[in-house]
Amino acid sequence: MANTNMYRKHYYMILILAFIVFQNINADSNVTKLISNIDGLSNNSVNCIWEDSEHTMWFGTWGGLNAYNGREIKVYKYNNKDPNSISNNIVRQISESGNYLWIATDNGINKLNKTTGQITRYYLQGRNGQIPDAEKTYIIGREHDGTIYCWHKNKGLYVYRNNKFDLIHTDFTSKVKYMSVTSAGIWFLFNDRSVRFSPINSKTIILKESNLRLICNSASNLFVSDDILIIKKDISLLLYDNYLKLTRTIPLMSKLQISQVLFYANKLYIGFIGGGCISYDFLTSSYSPVAGVPSKLSVFTLFVSSQRILWLGTDGQGVEQLYRYTPLFNTVFSPFPVRCFCDYRDGQILVGTKGSGLQLLNTVTRKLIGFRNEKNGLISNSVYALCKNDQNDIFIGTDGYGLNILNVRTGRLKKLQIPSIYPLFRSVYNIHFTNHGSVLWLGTAGYGLIKMDITKNGGTYIVKDLKQYSSADRPHTLNNDIIYAIASEPDGSFVWFGTRGGGLYRFDVNASSICRLDNLKVNNALTNDDILCLYGDSHGLWIGTSYGLNRMSPSGSGYSIIKYSDRNLSSSTIHGIIKDLLGNVWLSTSQGLYKINNKGRIENYTIKDGLQNNEFSDGAYYEDEDGNLYFGGVSGLNYFNPQKIHLRNFVPQLDLCGLKIYDRDVDIAPFMRKGVLKLKYDERNVTLNL
Q1: pLDDT digits (tens, 9 = 90+) for 322-375
Q2: What domain range includes position 677?
Q3: Domain CATH number, residue 9
Q4: Predicted model pTM
Q5: Helix (H/G/I), strand (E/B), else coil: 143
Q6: Is residue 363 part of a domain?
Q7: Euclidean distance between CA atoms 481 and 223, whole angstroms
Q8: Of 451, 457, 520, 551, which is the most exposed, with the fewest CB atoms less than 10 Å away?
Q9: Residue 16: enclosing H or E segment and its boundaries?
Q10: 105, 121 in Cβ contact below 8 A?
Q11: How far apart are CA 476 and CA 674, in angstroms?
């Protein structure tokens, strides 16, 4: 016996696990996803959709009933050898009352027990066979108290009471084209296009045409949504409340045949068999096409589920999901990797790229425009480091020899003049100031560590002294000349720098000496000696490597190192580290962005959340004067207000949807007692599928 509990995995869990890639990620947009026969749907022509109280989605198609739990689809089809199968594969309507689903097909009504999976067929005195009486012979409606009514086109009106369908005698059976039920009562669309109404309840035994109230003429269809009756009349939609009052008349802008009208959040959604879906806004009295729905897509039915997803059943294309997505991050794509940032002026951010020189980011328009390149004074179009000093000048490190300096006030770009007595260097990957800007530290790719004493005289910077520390020194001070990361302690006594593969070093400013971390008193080794980024705060030093994150704090006369052991974080390449105004630490990695809050909770954001890519660039991280964070990557950049970034706080209900005992699949129902799983003492080896 089938057990539908195993299909109650909530479809909206996929919203927590992953978002679909979307086209316009800098503005609210509809995210779309198609579910079709490729995913297990029994038929791509979908007549009706329902969400049950356990949040399983049900799809009625031209080829069977489908239960979708967000991950898997369970198909129910007619089988003449199985009395516990549905009565017909053409499913027209689905409704719910208590623990039962009611399914109207072209040949019979089916009651599905959601707990046991038992299916009971009702033919309403019709023939119990495979050949339907006619298309849409059975029409069901549900009253607010859960009472189920059924209209049989040849036999009239039935009500389900006392575990069976009882006939309500009518004298107008042959005149009815369609029936709908609201909490006000029952509505009939007659063949003469008149709409008539009568109160009804589960005790009603007879309805006469003379007692029906005429609502309107010239109607062509009825729809019920949110307990509102909607009548299609000529080129208008008429909305009636439960007091039978006409509350609104909405002119139609299309002559296409309407398949479904849905009321939700002050809008009417209208699907067309001829293709497309539009919405009517009650506040503005205007129509607009529903974004994400092709104008040629034939829509059979519409449904809005509890997680505000709009579901469309289509003719031949399966089920389409649409939901509104507000991007967490501002994203700007670039054909060149983004390597560094710096505040410029007028709210603009200077962006260094690998191959396209300096760009200016307008944070309002979210656009990059060219700013400086080799043709107008930039040493190289590959810009790896930007740093502004106390005098509002921006020092620029590139792949070329030397340094550029940009005057923010005038916009003039110069090259720092370095006396020829000092060694040449190039490929500056990090720029760091100490001593109120008078000491300049440079991390290079291949030229070790550069320390300069500089001063500004009449608008021009003068290099008073320059020292280079590299593996060529005797005795050796470094064992690797590639330095991507530099950070200093708050009191300026020590400067830390990390090398690519050579570990972490400490420069003692007072003693002008360098010591490798291994030679200091530490309680632990780093996760890796390939160091890509450093971030210092009042508690110590954050160290990002090509294989994991570390945090180092003073401890007595030495240091204590903590390795972050989160499964994903420990194996990630850490490209950037920065702390926001609330004390959360943000990491740019090879697996997207991570946030570590002040309680140690770790959150991960990826390209599915709107990032430019899961891979970010070494050293491309920045915080502006307003506390906004910037991260550069291989496909562009992201910037955001960290206080507005958080994971969805929705916690889905977990249901037991599968059970194995000694690795053998078993039906859950016999083991359930009042919602509790009961196992025998010898049934110890079990597997639960949640």
Answers
A1: 988 778 899 999 999 999 999 999 889 999 999 999 999 999 999 999 999 999
A2: 658-689
A3: 2.130.10.10
A4: 0.65
A5: coil
A6: no
A7: 74
A8: 457
A9: helix 13-17
A10: no
A11: 75
